[in-house]
Sequence to fold (146 residues):
Amino acid sequence: MAVNFREQLTLKKKSDKKYQECDLSAKSNKGAFIITVKVNIKDVFDFSIILQYISENGFNYILRRYNGTHQHKNILERTLIRGYHIHIATEKYQRSLLRIDGYAELTDSYKNWKDALAQLIADCNVKGENTYIIVPVQSLLTSGTV
Fold:
């Protein structure tokens, strides 16, 4: 997935006044990938970094979601997670007619939204124009937004 991250990464208020958001997207001939950064204005540890795929016929698939410190329940496994966690799209949840990203695992690989974004980029092998995205994103993340 090639993404141009050279644009300034700036979180802005959207329709929900509780969160600031930023969308980074890359189009392909079969659809588009979008990374959404969503951070609570009053609690920066309440966030979601979302990787989704929008198919050419308009279906939206959330592939990964890196969340902050709220709790989550894995319905099929009947487990409760408290703390930072990563949602992963699974066939099991899709076949059960649940949200495909309904399964999540506890993580200690990040402690804030900026590190969660860097972790998503690393885990999902997101690349920028002719280079890995880790270097350009680090400079954007130190710009002081949020």
About this structure: The CA atoms of residues 127 and 133 lie 5 Å apart. The two ends are 26 Å apart (CA to CA).
